[in-house]
Amino acid sequence: xxxxxxxxxxxxxxxxxxxxxxxxxxxxxxxxxxxxxxxxxxxxxxxxxxxxxxxxxxxxxxxxxxxxxxxxxxxxxxxxxxxxxxxxxxxxxxxxxxxxxxxxxxxxxxxxxxxxxxxxxxxxxxxxxxxxxxxxxxxxxxxxxxxxxxxxxxxxxxxxxxxxxxxxxxxxxxxxxxxxxxxxxxxxxxxxxxxxxxxxxxxxxxxxxxxxxxxxxxxxxxxxxxxxxxxxxxxxxxxxxxxxxxxxxxxxxxxxxxxxxxxxxxxxxxxxxxxxxxxxxxxxxxxxxxxxxxxxxxxxxxxxxxxxxxxxxxxxxxxxxxxxxxxxxxxxxxxxxxxxxxxxxxxxxxxxxxxxxxxxxxxxxxxxxxxxxxxxxxxxxxxxxxxxxxxxxxxxxxxxxxxxxxxxxxxxxxxxxxxxxxxxxxxxxxxxxxxxxxxxxxxxxxxxxxxxxxxxxxxxxxxxxxxxxxxxxxxx
Length: 476
Description:
By secondary structure, the chain is of the alpha/beta class. The protein folds into two domains: 2-151, Cobalamin-binding domain (Rossmann fold), CATH 3.40.50.280; 178-470, Alpha-Beta Barrel (TIM Barrel), CATH 3.20.20. It has helices at 25-33, 49-57, 72-85, 96-100, 118-130, 205-208, 218-225, 244-256, 269-274, 276-285, 299-304, 311-323, 340-352, 370-375, 400-415, 419-433, 439-452, 455-458, 462-465; strands at residues 2-7, 20-21, 38-43, 61-65, 90-94, 112-114, 141-145, 148-151, 180-181, 187-190, 193-194, 214-215, 232-235, 263-266, 287-295, 327-334, 357-362. It starts with a strand and ends in an 11-residue tail after the last helix.
């Protein structure tokens, strides 16, 4: 059967997508699981390619990725295009958001929503379609019927990730030059575990994975690393150090297999300081960057998001990583109730601890999270275009325009003030001179930064008007 898999992209305007564009790893794994079918992946950097691809390939089924809340309207729009070209094509949507909120897709133009691990359900679904079987017998689906949305049986989680196929990265070969992580280009993405044992109220990872953490063995991880193309390796794991012993073994095997290259992963500060030996081992294996959710600068703030961690742990982990010359990408959550004083305190914290790469997000009750349930009656808008972690969808204490002025000041003073500005420009120019990244990529990043520090971009009516054709009016 011919299956076309679509990766949604938002490549223009304000947003983190201006600074990060990684391969569609989820679709690559799904494609690999459909090895007995004819599968293509279309990464939609340009939407106009969709019509041509369907015309040429003539797929019988089209799967659309919807991992982020901001992808919802685009995913529906793509399904609409597919059905307008050929109503007989079976359309299905999967991914993180789609799994947690399948009711966002109760439309005839979407035939089904895949809930949970796509590579487990997709082969069963496509085989059933090919055999003209009753799809209600396929576990892990939300079927859209004339009588409404119908859930099939829950599909059990695959606990042994060693059984996952190596992602079909050959299907995205033509896009490889388009994938980047800031100034890191090329970038290759890998996943070695799924889930997180913690219960932060702003995060739905643990709900998606039903409270479980599943991991590949070190042997399986190294086997896949050997297949990777050139570039820095970003581990997409939700919490790479959830099993510190496993992480140590992976680094040891990388060292012994002479697979040393630049690696980046996400980890919690409490695990880092409990296992300095693991970090030191990884530093030798090539660890070059760690994403840490600092979230807040005070303990009361951390407790308010159920982080289960301490600011002291954050600061100790930062010091350890800095001592090993490992880049720290520290993310902070800005509460809509911030006043000028809280914004000042956050900037002072960053300056005091010499955090070179801070990232700021607005506290957002994403659908599927505990926070969404807690804050439901306070949410000002259901326009998903604004659920990008950069816009306030909860009431702000400051007037909205003033809130965005203060929010953009965080980025402006962290990256464009005095020494920070010259340090950033020096880094960018060094990358260009060395040939590691192109001038056009630098210009793209600088344009994204220009928008990030302009409060007027956050108030742009374009966000409200963008999806009016899809019947999604904004109330923001």
